[in-house]
Specification:
By secondary structure, this protein is of the alpha/beta class. It folds into 2 domains: about 325 residues, Up-down Bundle (ABC transporter transmembrane region fold), CATH 1.20.1560.10; about 240 residues, P-loop containing nucleotide triphosphate hydrolases (Rossmann fold, 3-Layer(aba) Sandwich), CATH 3.40.50.300. It is about 65% helix and about 10% strand. Strand 1 and strand 2 form a beta hairpin. The chain binds adenosine-5'-triphosphate. The site of adenosine-5'-triphosphate (ATP) has 15 residues, from helix 11.
């Protein structure tokens, strides 16, 4: 339960809503409790006057007496109505304060969790799967919201109603109060068990629904494979089996749900029975009036829902505590990559790796071993090597997605950590290998790192990245939606949009990670021409599997198993007759007219 203490800061922030809510609940309940008392008075009035009425029956005063009695009853009826109006009014305000409070808290909390997620480093995202992150920010926060809103509301309601009703009951008869309260703890306990059962079953159903969703989603995403392997029937069978499990679980829940109300009615019915029986005995003895019995029956009914709610609240609080525990786990996770630097100068582009060794914290894989190289401002370097040889890791370290395990990276002759992290990332234009575009317009994707860029520049950079004509061929040009909600761009088009996105930032250093792999040789040639022209003054690192003779590299390093196994210029490496020379030879044979 101590997990929920984290939420106290929100209660403090919205204390005004909370206190007002408490006041409105109490006022609403006050008017509610006055109702049975008015009904009791009305009923007693009728009982008392019945005798007198019989006396006047048949006389000429009968009409007057009846009129007077009706007027009094009308007055009581009107009073009950007025009380109901006040009760309803305060009930409306109670929801407007407490439920609104819970929604405000939910909003603050979701924002806090999302902002915290964004601060966490890449290693955190590798350790935890996206589904888990999503469920904590959606389902878990929803469950906590149930505690902040409905549970608090019914809890506050329960306390104030209990005090008022029990007080009013005790004023009439302590003995009768005791009898009618006997079944209520049983009601509360059994509702607690039933709602816990309902919650467990609902959770299983939710999980099964998630499985069902992902099964369907996977089939739709991989529909080409499914169709080409003629696996439609098999996937339908698999889906039907999952649906069947969902159906069974839902039917089980329906059985449990149908226990809820009969149980409630049974136990409150017993309370009513006890009130009528023992109350009747007391009326005979003359200690209470018949109106008191009616008053008590209404009290018992009033208590039914709050007492039921005890079990329900307990179950909500239990779930909220479990969810808050999961949320706290992430909130307490601190990023390992933090901003230690204050250097916000633009970069001249000098990069030096000094004996850099790096081991991925989550897998223990040593991706780089004593890697050293130096680039002067404006120099271009190619990194070549087999897959898994550590090329991307070099880019990740330069962007401080991870910190080196051993050795040092210097940027402009200063340790990487002395540079302001945000500024450092802003000054590096990085085109990652796995291109990712947001479900937004092409324009919005291009200006992602420099939102104020004017349309003319967006178009210019699309031209530099050789994607302008492709974009203009789309139905809405730069306003075309891409991704899930829009058109699907080809792999090569996506790569070029992502190049435009990196270049429009006008970075000091450019890193391209195998980002021309999916474009044809002509397009590749155009992009590289732009690089050798417009980016002549920028330091650039190009990670690739292809050898480009178009672009004059000042340096080429060949990676293997995390080490730099060859380094030098194109000519030096050819003379070396190693991996590079081999690759060059193979590529010359394969594509004699390509970009070589
Ligand atoms: N986020 C990560 N967590 C753990 N290990 C990783 C991670 N990224 C890469 N590795 C491992 O580090 C090694 C180097 O990977 P890296 O991505 O740097 O290679 P690469 O040369 O860029 O490969 P490719 O040409 O296929 O992109 C590989 O063994 C890989 O499995």
């Amino acid at each position: 339960m101590k997990q929920l203490a984290y939420l106290n800061k929100y209660f403090w922030r919205y204390r005004r809503h909370f206190l007002l809510g408490f006041l409105f609940v109490s006022l609403s309940n006050y008017f509610r409790v006055l109702q049975p008392q008015t009904i009791r008075e009305a009923l007693d009035l009728v009982v008392e006057n019945l005798y007198l009425y019989r006396m006047y029956q048949g006389t000429e005063l009968e009409g007057d007496f009846f009129g007077m009695l009706s007027l009094q009853l009308f007055y009581f009826g009107f009073l009950v109505l007025v009380l109901a109006v006040f009760m309803g009014l305060f009930m409306y305000w109670m929801r407007q304060t407490i439920i609104v409070m819970s929604r405000l808290m939910e909003y603050d909390m979701r924002k806090e969790v999302f902002a915290h997620y964004e601060k966490l480093d890449l290693a955190f995202y590798k350790r935890n799967n996206t589904g888990d992150l999503m469920s904590r920010i959606t389902e878990d926060i929803n469950k906590v919201r149930m505690y902040l809103g409905p549970a608090v509301l019914y809890g506050v309601n329960l306390i104030s109603l209990f005090i008022l009703v029990i007080y009013s009951m005790l004023m009439v008869s302590a003995e009768l109060t005791m009898y009618c309260l006997i079944p209520l703890p049983f009601l509360s306990i059994s509702i607690y068990y039933v709602s816990t059962l309902i919650n467990t079953q609902s959770e299983k159903i939710q999980q099964q629904l998630a499985t069902l969703n992902s099964t369907a989603q996977e089939v739709y995403s991989g529909i080409r494979v499914v169709k080409s392997y003629v696996q439609e029937a098999a996937t339908v069978k698999h889906f039907a089996a999952q649906s069947d499990r969902f159906k069974q679980q839902s039917l089980r829940l329906a059985v449990t749900n149908s226990l809820f109300f009969p149980l409630m009615v049974l136990l409150t019915g017993m309370s009513t029975l006890l009130v009528i029986y023992f109350g009747g005995l007391q009326v005979v003895k003359g200690t209470i009036t018949p109106g008191n019995i009616a008053e008590f029956v209404i009290y018992v009914n009033m208590l039914t829902w709050p007492v039921t709610a005890i079990g329900w609240i307990a179950s909500i609080v239990q779930q909220a505590a479990a969810s808050q525990k999961r949320i706290n786990e992430f909130l307490k996770t601190q990023p390992t990559i933090v901003n230690l630097g204050s250097n916000t100068q633009d970069l001249s582009g000098e990069i030096e790796f000094k004996n850099v060794t790096f081991t991925y914290p989550d897998t223990g894989i040593t991706a780089l071993k004593e890697v050293s190289f130096k680039l002067e401002p404006g120099q271009k370097m190619a990194i070549i090597g087999r897959t898994g040889s550590g090329k991307t890791t070099i880019a990740d370290l330069l962007l401080r997605m991870y910190d080196v395990t051993e050795g040092q990276i210097l940027l402009d002759n200063q340790a990487l950590s002395t540079h302001d992290l945000a500024k450092l990332r802003k000054r590096i234009g990085y085109v990652p290998q796995d291109v990712f575009l947001f479900s937004d317009t092409i324009s919005a994707n291009i200006v992602f790192g420099r939102r104020e860029a004017p349309q003319a520049e967006i178009e210019d950079f699309a031209r530099y990245a050789s994607v302008y004509n492709d974009i203009m061929d789309l139905p809405k040009g730069f306003d075309t939606l891409v991704g899930e909600r829009g058109v699907t761009l080809s792999g090569g088009q996506k790569q070029r949009v992502s190049i435009a996105r990196a270049l429009i930032k006008k970075p000091d250093i450019v890193i391209l990670d195998d980002c021309l792999s999916a474009v044809d040789t002509n397009t590749e040639k155009q992009v590289l021409e732009y690089f050798s022209g417009a980016l002549a003054q920028k330091t650039a690192i190009i990670i690739t599997h292809r050898i480009y003779s178009l672009l004059q590299f000042d340096k080429i390093i060949v990676m293997d198993g995390g080490r730099v196994v060859e380094a030098g210029t194109h000519e030096e490496l050819l003379a070396n007759k190693g991996y590079y020379a081999d690759l060059f030879e193979k590529q010359t044979e394969e594509v004699p007219t390509a970009s070589l």
